[in-house]
Each structure stands twice: as C-alpha cells, then as structure tokens.
Amino acid sequence: MQLIDNFGRSIDYIRISVTDRCNLRCLYCMPDTSGCTAAGKADGKISHDAVLRYEEIVRFVEAAAALGIKKIRLTGGEPLVRRSLHELVKGIKQISGIEELSLTTNGQLLAQLITPLALAGLDRVNISLDSLIPERYAQITKGGDFGKVMAGIRAAESAGLLPVKLNMVPMLGVNDDEIVDFVRFGMHTGAQIRFIELMPTVVNEHLFSKGFIGSEQIRRAIEREFEITPLKLRKYGPARYFKVKCAAEPQSHASGIIGIISAVTCRFCSLCNRLRLTADGRLRPCLYSNIEIGLFDALRNNASAEELQGLILQAVALKPERHHICDGTKTGTSTGAPFIMSGVGG
Ligand code: SAM
Ligand code: SF4
Known about the structure:
single chain; alpha/beta; TIM Barrel; 10 helices; 29% helix; globular; binds S-adenosylmethionine; binds iron/sulfur cluster
C-alpha cells in the first residue's frame, strides 16, 4: 500500500519524538533557562502523564505501517534520556512493513546504551556534533561532553550501525571555520557529514539574524578544498548528497559522502515524504507549520486501528504543498508575520 498526499508525494516516513526533555541546551535549539544541567539531568514542559507510552507509539506505528509507512526515526528532545528506549525499538522492529528504524541523538548517552539498542534491531543513528573542538562543543551545547559524543560515534560504528551520520549546523562566527575540518573528519572516519542550515525558532532569533549560513555558502567553503560531485542517493528527503575528494591530491583514493540540507534557502517541500508525531501525541503533516491532528486521546482510549488510520489520513490530507519559513506568512495561519518555528524538535 502507498500513502499519496494531495500533491502526489509518497508519504512513507514518520519522525517520532519520544520526549521533549533534553540533557543539553544547544544554543540554536533550547532556551538556556530551566531544564538541562551539565550533569546530564534533563527536564521538559510536557508532564509525564501527557507523554505517549511505548505501547501507544507501537499501536500508532502498526496503524501507520498498514497504510504504507516504511521508515521511522526516533528523536526528541533527546530520545536517549527516555528510559529503556530499546523496548520501543524492539516493539517497532516487530511491525510488519517497517523497513528502517533510525535514531537522532546528541550522543551523550549513546556509548552506554548502544548494546541494547543494537540488539533490539536499531538500524542506524544520526549524531549531532557542531564542533570538533572540545571546549567549543561544550559552549555550543552548554555543557556537553565532547569525549562522550566521540565514544558514542565509535560505539555506533563498532555495533555496525553504518554509515554513522553526523549532523552539523554551521553558524557564522560560531563554528563556520570548521566546515572543512568536518569534511576531512568524515573522510578519515567514514562518517557521513550532513550540514544543516540553521532554522529560525523562537529561541534563536538573534543567532539566526547574525549567524545564518546558506547552503550555497557552505558548498563554496567546501569547494575551496575539495572536489565535489552531486550524487542521487534518494528520491525523497531533504538532503542533497555529494561525493567529496581532496582537490590537492586528485590521485588520492580518499573520498567521502556529505549531505547539505537547505531547509531555509532551497525548499525541499516537493520531495517531502514525512509526517511527525510529537511526544504528546500530535501528528504534524509539516514540521514547519502549526497544523496538527490530535492522536493522544485516541491512543490513550484504545481506539481501533481503523480509527487511528482515519486520523493519519486526515493529517496526510492536510499536508501543505510547501512551508513558508522566512517569507512572511505562516502555514495554517494568516498572521502575516515572518514565520519563526517554535522549535525544530527532531
Ligand atoms: N537531541 C537530538 C539531537 O540533538 O540529535 C535529537 C533532536 S534534535 C532537535 C535533531 C536535530 O535537529 C539535531 O541534529 C539538531 O542539530 C537539529 N536542530 C535543532 N534545532 C535546529 C535549528 N534551529 N536549526 C537547524 N537544526 C536544528
Ligand atoms: Fe537537545 Fe538536540 Fe536540541 Fe541540542 S539539538 S538542545 S541535543 S534536542
């Protein structure tokens, strides 16, 4: 079965936020008040009772898989702060039709949790890393431990969750001088580096206005040192992929793959194949809009698979043709104000 929206896009991917809590406070993502501490204690706004239980998420994925969803990504907040995440991984992997289950994490707890996650069937991980300089990493994340994220990367490789993908958000005056170092790091380690354009949110307005770097600028910085060739790795999805080779050593066999994700400057909406489920059970057809269908009550009250599927189909029918980041309108509203997201959250 295939799930096709009103604009002919095949919807086969859902990102599921399992918590809004996080043990870090990255400067572009979270306010630095309340919540996280460098000691790793995480806090969030959604009360414990309002967060979907694992068995509810599994029932949701079962209903979605029967409609044609094939890929699931677990995210947050920080998904690894939720207890026994491997139980959820195991539950989702048993669902017929789910072909790929991946996780986006800041990597702080990955080394200690990788074994149960891999045994439960996790297929791949994306790890967020915005600097290769330990002190700078700690500043950007407000207390993150660089050693722990590196241990997480190595643990994921050893567990065979390959290729490990590293998400890096380049920001002018913060870490833009490391773009080339990241490409080199990927070539040496085999990790796939994904450069993500900084997106505006309510917590990063100042940073966005001063620090935004567009994908063309990112690409030019890379081209100064590397030969890059476009690759067609996927039909759908937000990333454009390139093969990179060292320009100064054309004979060298060293090469790598990088992705550039231009959510802001170059819309990938026509290729968008995804929905998003928040930790408290709201199904969003577009990450960058306020449109949502509430699923919490249905899941908590044991709605049938058919009822859940009806709600999922409603969300697909509401999927907008495109988002409106930075172009003066807000999808689903008519405020006329520049669209600033409440948070990327995954
Ligand atoms: N806590 C996990 C992590 O950091 O990987 C998962 C959730 S986090 C919201 C998912 C991804 O979104 C991370 O790679 C992060 O860098 C990215 N992200 C968060 N806020 C962003 C923003 N304003 N612009 C661009 N990327 C952002
Ligand atoms: Fe936490 Fe991830 Fe946001 Fe950083 S990007 S504050 S690790 S949720």
